[in-house]
Amino acid sequence: MENDMKKLITIALLSGALLLSGCGDGELPLTKLEMEQEQRIEELEAELEQAEVRLAEAEEALAGAGEGAEYSLENMIRVEPEFSQAIVNCPEGILVSPVEPQLKCGHPMENEYVEVVAKCRVKLSSELTEPPEEWLLVECAVMDATEGSLGWIPAECAAEYTAENMEQVTWPLKVDESKFDWGYGLVSLGSVEDGAAQIGYHGGGSASIPLEALLRPEPGATGWFE
Asked: Tens of pLDDT along 201-214?
């Protein structure tokens, strides 16, 4: 009997020691669900770290992007544009991004002069067909404060601006103030009759000026919007 009592006391002491070692800091043992949650958190943190590394690598590549380099993370490949000045006819106007056609930021463009900043090809995907779509990033004039001056247009909407076709441009033109007193900025050309140009300007105004006072961008020289 005495030996049995000693065994019971020994077992009780050992059990108490185990409980104290496990709960001495006030924490209960983790349940299976909690252990699974902790493991998932660790996995997500590892995935996030890998994603941050890939993003840093992409940003570094874009910083020194050249021909054929990634232009953005949205299925676009940067290529060198063939010309720096263009005449544009684009009913949709400029877009914020070639891969988000619903994001428009400009007015319908007809016989409009722009300057080409960059060019890209949209990568092939299940939603696109051959050949890859080509887009131009262009700088243009705004007609009101709600518009952007930089955006994307389909390359097929643009033709190189040259001395042969420069007379087609109707917006944005300038007035030679040495030949006509003017202070209203850029103008659009309406019609020409008897040496006089009918022009429109910001705010919906119109005027008639001598045709010789109308200025168009010089082919081969960018900087019209400066």
From this structure: 988 899 999 999 99
Q: Which tokens belong to 16?
A: 């108490």
Residue 144 Cα distances to 137, 141, 159, angstroms = 20, 9, 25
Q: Helices (H) and strands (E) in the chain — how many of each?
A: 2, 12
Q: Examine residue 172 and say whether the peptide bond preceding it is cis (omega within 30 degrees of 0).
A: yes
pTM, 2 dp: 0.66
Q: Is the model's pLDDT at 22 over the cut of 60? A: no
Residue 170 has φ and ψ, to the nearest 5°, of -115, -10
Residue 79's contacts (CB-CB under 8 Å, 6 or more residues apart) are 67, 68, 119, 120, 121, 134
DSSP state of 149: S
Task: Give per-residue pLDDT as tens, 137-151.
Answer: 999 999 988 899 999
Q: Which two tokens stand for residue 126?
A: 């299940």
